[in-house]
Design goal:
By secondary structure, the chain is α/β, with parallel strands linked by helices. The strands form 8 sheets. Strands 1, 2, 5, 6 and 7 form a 5-stranded antiparallel beta sheet that branches. Strands 9-10-13-8-14 form a 5-stranded parallel beta sheet, sandwiched between helices.
């Protein structure tokens, strides 16, 4: 490189005089060494002085030409003015290798692309004619993209391959940066051009429409908003808000982002059915007929829904009569059943959602469903503030808009699965929605106007009550749906499921018939659930196989499925068996009853003992909760304390460890109702008396042996009936709960009401034999 160096320091001027003397001559040379961060580089450049003179301002300067690298050695005595050092010419390595030539070509190509990107492709011509790899790498000294430190790194790289590796890497980074900037610049330019073009086209379109006397869609939408703002049927607060936002819209430029936000808000508010209401002259007998046609069984639930509708109808009649007499009538939605929140609680597949649809059909109102399972953000209920990007109304407001009326039947599905985190508690936001004293002025954060929900019929659904927050549950009227009996399932399958699955699988009524005996076999042998969801799946599976056989010619229509053998032909071997007799055939196993998230179920409690050398005690397994573990401890304590009364042999507890296990260990279990089952299993083990295979039991037990009441009696009894049990032991104080059990089930089963554990053991254990020691 040929450069001009200003001699600004005494040392620089002294070095120049020492090198050139009084004038410039061909052999005058200086050693140029860069200094960074207080240190000199290990490699410098030997340069020849080409000329000397003064710059503008009188500063002396030299014009020098770089010759070659020199490795800096130790200093030597000098003249007292100039700095003298030993410098040996640098020896470059790997200057002529194939790798060096490959890197040099790559560097040339990358630099050419950089120069083209910067609009100076002519500079690449001189660069393209170079062939020496080391000289090509040294051209990096001209790059404005490299820092002083990077250029010193190039100077100190005596290995040509390493030097080329450095400059190629930096050049690639520079080219990538330039490419990104070019792409961004291009996108911005195209976006600006598109925006300007669209603006001009819109202006021209508006002018053309004005000349033709046509109005644009935007004008029509705004005219609708203006009409709402002037409609006396719209609440005054809403009209004032619409008028205010219309004024802001007219004062805001269309190019401003706020114009779009205001317009979206106006469209959202105008889309709500402020003046639309569904007329619902409730025909109570007709409503009952609709419920009976849509659902088999569930008499208690249907009775409660009909009661709700009947009282609603009477309140509406009284309100209309008072209005005719000139009295101020309280809206039906703010008193009585209008504000009651019916909550259908039951296992999956019992028809909670379809009941809500039937209620809407019976009332003649639109039906909308809001799924709340997994909702964790409070804004999902109340809406987002308008200041946030992407703000929108909450799910309640959107459901009202979708319904098209202000008084729909709105189902809040899966309220027991609401969550909460740092974004808020949705269940707390629902308190205002479901409170009849507050929901006539529900305020959505996005709308910022009151929304009257007082005449909305809310129906909530849940699988279990335990996870519904207390304050929310306090505003609900729980209607349990505990499941169906076997006969009810057969009726539902015959009247509803088979016909629906025929349509879905393309099978005609005259192509296949399924008898009640076959349906009963599917219910008993291929499903075991509280609802009918799996039953419908099995019916659909059977019809799919029949449809396939008909299509392939394997069978000819009509196909008759008459009995269990025909069911086995299409669905294979049974999936469920009556296993209670096998499980309880040995002492130490008792059959308990429990309630899970999918309905009632039977569970077995197994007890065993083993010799122990110093670690006597109790082991509990089966993924049990704390309450259930306490029941196991109580059971062992009671049996030990009353060993003589129970007929346990002397020494049965000496140096022995006991183990209580509840199978299906992958399923979490908790609750106190397994207490009597654990005592029965332990007593059976120690007395050698097996538990009767026809008996199931449930109840909490105390250390004194008292049997305390439990919940879920109906679900547990239905589970016992499904499992083939014919006797159930219940706490005496749960006797009134048997009225909830269907009469057909009560007639087939025997119930033992026990107030003490002795009564449980007497009903559950086989006759006594000689006591055993283990």
């Amino acid at each position: 490189m040929v450069v001009t160096i200003a001699l600004e320091t005494d040392e620089a001027r002294a070095a120049a005089r020492a090198a050139a003397g009084d004038g410039v001559h061909d052999r005058a040379q200086v050693l140029l060494v860069p200094r960074l961060d207080g240190r000199y580089a290990a490699v410098g450049t030997v340069a020849q002085i080409e000329d000397a003179g003064e710059l503008r301002g009188g500063v002396k300067a030299l014009v020098v030409r770089g010759l070659h690298r020199a490795v800096i050695g130790a200093g030597v005595p000098g003249t007292g003015e100039a700095l003298w050092v030993r410098a040996t010419p640098a020896v470059e390595a790997n200057a002529d290798t194939d790798r060096a030539e490959e890197l040099a070509k790559e560097y040339q190509a990358v630099v050419e692309n950089i120069l083209e990107s910067r609009g100076v492709p002519g500079l690449a011509d001189a660069f393209r004619g170079m062939t020496d790899p080391g000289a090509i790498a040294d051209m990096a000294g001209y790059s404005p993209d490299l820092s002083a430190e990077q250029k010193v790194g190039v100077l100190e790289a005596l290995d040509v391959e390493d030097r080329l590796e450095l400059v190629v890497g930096w050049a690639r980074e520079t080219l990538a940066d330039l490419s990104l900037k070019d792409r961004i610049r291009k996108d911005v330019t195209e976006g600006m051009e598109k925006t300007q073009r669209e603006f001009l086209l819109r202006q021209q379109l508006a002018a053309i429409q004005k000349e033709l006397g046509e109005e644009s869609g935007d004008d029509e939408a705004l005219d609708h908003v203006r009409a709402l703002a002037a409609d006396p049927a719209v609440p005054q607060e809403v009209r004032d808000a619409l008028t205010k936002e219309l004024g802001r819209l007219e004062r805001t430029s269309e190019q401003s982002p706020e114009h779009g936000w205001i317009r979206t808000w106006l469209d959202t508010v105008a889309g709500l059915p402020w003046t639309s209401r569904a007329e619902d002259p409730v025909d109570v007998p007709g409503a009952r007929a609709v419920l009976d046609a849509d659902h088999n069984g569930l008499e208690d639930v249907k009775d409660r829904i009909v009661e709700h509708l009947a009282v609603r109808a009477r309140l509406a009649e009284r309100a209309a009569a008072q209005a005719a007499d000139g009295d101020d009538a309280e809206p039906a939605g703010r008193s009585g059943p209008g504000g009651a929140i019916i909550t259908l609680v039951g296992p999956p597949g019992v028809g909670k959602t379809s009941l809500g649809e039937s209620v809407a059909r019976a009332m003649g109102r639109p039906f909308v469903r809001v799924a709340l399972g997994g909702v964790r953000d409070e804004a999902e209920i109340r809406g987002h503030r308008r200041t946030y990007v992407g703000a929108m109304p909450g799910r309640i407001a959107r459901a009202i808009s979708d319904a098209g009326v202000m008084n729909p039947v709105l189902m809040l599905d899966e309220v027991d699965k609401l969550g909460s985190d740092w974004r808020g508690d949705p269940s707390s936001a629902l308190l205002e929605v479901l409170d009849p004293a507050q929901n006539h002025t529900f305020r959505d954060h996005y709308l910022e106007v009151d929304l009257d929900l007082s005449d909305v019929v809310f129906i909530a659904t849940a699988n279990v009550m335990d996870t519904i927050p207390g304050p929310l549950l306090d505003r609900m009227e729980v209607v349990p749906l505990d499941g169906y009996t076997e006969a009810e399932k057969v009726d539902i399958a015959r009247d509803h499921l088979v016909a629906r699955q025929r349509r879905r699988n393309g099978v005609g009524d005259d192509e296949v018939t399924i008898s009640d005996d076959a349906l009963r076999s599917i219910v008993a042998d291929h499903t075991r659930e509280a609802g009918v969801r799996n039953l419908e799946r099995q019916v659909g599976r059977l019809l799919r196989k029949v449809a396939t056989a008909l299509s392939t010619g394997a069978v000819e229509a009509p196909v008759e499925v008459r009995d269990a053998d025909d069911v086995r032909r299409w669905l294979g071997r049974p999936r469920f068996f009556a296993e209670v007799a096998d499980r309880t055939s040995v002492p130490g196993v008792a059959t308990g009853l429990a309630v899970t998230g999918v309905g009632g179920d039977v569970l077995f409690v197994e007890a065993s003992s083993m010799p122990s050398s110093g670690d006597a005690g109790l082991t509990l397994t089966g993924q049990l909760g704390d309450v259930m573990k306490e029941s196991g401890t109580i059971a062992l304590s009671y049996v030990r304390a009353h060993a003589d009364e129970l007929g346990v042999a002397d020494g049965a507890f000496d140096d022995r460890r006991f183990h209580l296990h509840v199978p299906a260990g992958a399923v979490p279990k908790d609750g106190p109702s397994a207490g009597v089952t654990m005592v029965t299993a332990m007593t059976s083990l120690l007395t050698g008396r097996p538990v009767r295979s026809t008996v199931g039991m449930t109840g909490e037990v105390t250390l004194q042996g008292n049997v305390l009441p439990i919940g879920g009696v109906k679900q547990k009894v239905l589970a016992a009936h499904r499992a083939g049990l014919t006797e159930v032991v219940l706490p005496a104080r749960n006797g009134p709960d048997l009225d909830d059990v269907p009469e057909a089930v009560r007639e087939q089963m025997t119930f033992h009401l026990a107030s003490h554990i002795d009564e449980v053991l007497a009903a559950a254990l086989e006759p006594a034999s000689d006591p055993v020691a283990a």
